[in-house]
Amino acid sequence: MDRSHISPVWRRLISIGVLALLAFSVPVVSMASAAAPASQQPAYLEFRVMKDYGKWVAPSETATSILSMISSIRASTGNRLLDMYAIVAGPQIATEKVGTTTLDDFLTQAKQAAGGQVIPDLNLNYYTSDLKSLDLNQKSNYCDPHNKTFCGPAWFFTVSSELLSLKAVSTDPQRTVSLDAWDQFNRDIIKGGLPASTAITVLQQLKAQGWVNLMLKTENYFSDNGNACAQIATVDDSTSAPYMQPELSLTSKLPSTERAFVHFDRQNQNSPDPITALAAFLSTLKPAQQALGLTNLASLESTNHYTFIYPVLTYTARNSVSYTWDATVDRQSNGQPFIYMIESLINKYG
Predict the structure, then answer these.
(1) For residues 35 and 41, what is the distance between their CA atoms, to the nearest angstrom?
(2) What residues have CB less than 8 Å from 228, skipping those under 6 apart?
């Protein structure tokens, strides 16, 4: 969908109009309580299969195999509800082709198979993509891939509206979205000379737009003034056993009103920047070490009061080398796919 014909004035009017229309229909629904028994809580799985405008990012899978995978995981975990984290990310059109069907129908079928939520991933860097003085925008372009002049707040809220309009999302009373780069966003607001209240205002605007639950993906704590339901920490890697540790320096700072999550952040970092935990997990660890790292992250959930988002399908890159993780393809040291181990960890730890 080419938006190059839309004038800047109309872009802002469209965004404001969407916010106003939806502001009056936002029910108060919270995510499952962290105090509920593990068997009654959904398991959170990272399922990255679709990014910008229908781009498929799970090279070993098809739409059909993804649906079969979801059904199999659910059957192997006692029919537990599965929340599919980041299964869709970035700008999307509901009618994009996915195999023999559309993105809308694929996500609806995935939601039906999983029983839980479809949780889209929305990058906060879209909001500041018009601030060309920022270091981030010197390296990358977070504007519309189809129209590099469509940037900034109007672009951000357009993508948000697209994700919110997907049937699998809009029909869910929880309507949860993961907001990427919360810490980067807070820093860039100051660097870009925006009002200090911008971050909180954006969260409030997202709720007015129709989102109910906001999950903030971050590496450092920034207060959200009670507007988010959760913050998602990353993993700290180590060259010694157990190789992967939860980022407790962040989760320990969260208020009691917010849930803590831990996941493998898939951001790309090149030398001389430190390697990310996901890049280290995929490029430096042997299968037995990967198994130990996953087990450690799952086993510490209860003690440290966080929920682990199990990696099923994800990817990253470092120094121009791409890495993918497919738990149904990648093998443990015993020759079995890692998905068997993940299912076992879900059954044991939740």
Answers:
(1) 9
(2) 179, 203, 214, 215, 216, 258
Q: Is the Cα torsion angle 296, 298, 299, 301 positive or negative in sign?
A: positive
How confident is residue 141, by pLDDT bands cut at 50, 70 and 90? Answer: confident
Q: Which amino acid is at 325?
A: W
- What's the pLDDT at 139? 79
Phi, psi of 117, deg, nearest 5: -95, 150
Of 172, 310, 166, 178, nearest to 235 (Cα)? 310
Residue with tokens 């929880």: 174
Report pLDDT digits (tens) over 61-99: 999 999 999 999 999 999 999 999 999 999 999 999 999
Amino acid at 331: R
Q: Which residues contact 257 (CB under 8 A, 6 or more apart)?
A: 226
Q: Which of 33, 14, 76 is nearest to 307 (CA)?
A: 33
CATH topology for 37-349 is TIM Barrel (3.20.20)
CB 150: neighbour CB atoms within 10 A?
A: 22
What ranges do the domains of the chain cover? 37-349
Query: For tokens 């990255």, what's the residue?
Result: 48
d(CA 210, CA 233): 25
Q: Which of 21, 56, 55, 49 is nearest to 165 (CA)?
A: 21
pTM for this structure? 0.89
The rounded distance, in Å, linking the Cα atoms of 151 and 169 is 24
Q: What is the pLDDT of residue 31?
A: 60
Residue with tokens 């925008």: 137
